[in-house]
Amino acid sequence: MYFKVENLSYEIENKNICHKIELNINKGEFIGIIGPNGSGKSTLLKNIYKVLIPNEGSIYLNNKDLVKSSNRESAEEMAVVAQENNIGFDFTVKDIVLMGRYPRKKLFQRSDSLDVDIIRKSLGKVGMENMINKSFPSLSGGEKQRVLIARALAQETEFLILDEPTNHLDIGCQIKILKFLKNLKKTILISIHDLNMAAEYCDRIYAIKEGKIVASGTPKEVLSVELIKKLYEVESELSEDPITKKIKINYILS
């Protein structure tokens, strides 16, 4: 699998939200997008998973131009856990995960025993199999997020896109979800706020500010005191974990 964005730009009312974005992902990589609120992270991802259409540029996945592909064709190649997941009906967990099977079904084709098996396995991977008949709205924030990840897994795609999947979750849920995603060994593109989490789990990082990529590379290559100040206007100190050898960021609050 290979994914590439070339010269992608998106504007609203003559304002550039994303400007000439270039990025690439190889099979099995865990790629993070970091940047302050309003920098264009979510807009970039929405262009990639076809909620928005770029004003210019191309998006290629397995040599297919996603801009020109149908929504069904795209859903057969990539699964998405979006930031907005307001589900207004009282669906069960099983109903939610079953939605991930729709791209694999023909028109009017009903779910079968294979779909049910895939649903159970997907829920099992996120530790939610015993919740299969529970009401989705009754779940906690962390439980809902795991169910939505199970829905994405049920699509059976190699490529997963996640827009701030740990936002508003406690630190324990954040670690469990990111560790689980890392262990999937799938190709993942994720926007993430917590820089220490990005440093711990991402193979490479793209830093975005005002709709432009301002740095890219491994966490150690990208996360510098200067870049953190440029992105977030905060002072910081960097160190290396003696065991994991991963970079650690400490923020200077005074």
Tell me the number of helical segments per DSSP (H or I, 4 or more residues long): 9
- Structural class by SSE content: alpha/beta
- N/C terminus separation: 46 Å
Order of helices and strands: EEEHEEHEHHHEHEHEEHHEE
What's the story with the biggest beta sheet? 6 strands, mixed
Strand content: 25-35%
Strand order of the largest sheet: 6-7-8-3-9-10
Helix content: 25-40%
* Contiguous runs where pLDDT drops below 50 for at least 5 residues: none
How many beta-strand elements? 12
| Shape by Cα distribution | globular
Mean pLDDT over the residues:
92
Global Rg:
19 Å
Tell me what the structure shows:
With 254 residues, the chain is α/β, with parallel strands linked by helices. Helix content is 31%, strand content 29%. The longest helix has 14 residues, at 141-154. The protein is globular.
Defining traits:
9 helices; single chain; 254 residues; alpha/beta
List the SSEs and their pairings:
Layout: E1 2-12, E2 15-26, E3 30-34, H1 41-48, E4 56-61, E5 64-65, H2 71-75, E6 78-81, H3 93-98, H4 113-125, H5 141-154, E7 159-163, H6 171-183, E8 187-191, H7 195-201, E9 204-209, E10 212-217, H8 219-222, H9 225-232, E11 235-240, E12 247-252
Parallel strand pairs: 3-8, 3-9, 6-7, 7-8
Antiparallel strand pairs: 1-2, 1-4, 4-5, 9-10, 11-12
Quick overview:
With 254 residues, the protein is α/β, with parallel strands linked by helices.
